[in-house]
Amino acid sequence: MIDNNQTNQTLPEEEYVRPSRDEYFMEVCKAVSKRATCNRWRSWCVIERDHQILVTWYVWAPRWLPHCDEVWHLFKEVTDETWHKSMHCMRTVHAEQNAICQAAKLWISLEWATLYCKMTPCRACAMMIINCGIKRVICEKKYHAWAESEEMFKQVWIQLEFVNEEVEKY
User: Is the pLDDT of residue 63 over 60?
Assistant: First the structure.
């Protein structure tokens, strides 16, 4: 039986912990990845500057061409700098490339921005990131084949960080 004479007491709430900026943008990345059209890697990219999202994108086929989710993957053998051979899907455009293209289409400068992505960008993406003036790259995981990208970022003073030191492999 409830005693109406007692003061209304509330249960203690769990203390809310506000996510860091990097945690917040990584959570946004997870939502962006749901639009990806290659079920092999549901990769994502979010680019922000001064706490403001500039552009997001994900891995998908070029406009008006069929997607992996529609017609399956277009596999080709790729050899990395350590002579490791693996099969890569060539049907899709990398999320980082798509995001950079989207920014160009919208006339958005990426100078001094931070890029969030699923794993270490490939060499081509790294070169685009460098040329865009992006100064910080945050990856969820390392990718085994892209030590060259890490070295290029180091040479041009782009800050590269990993949320998880786990190495992603195909």
Answer: yes
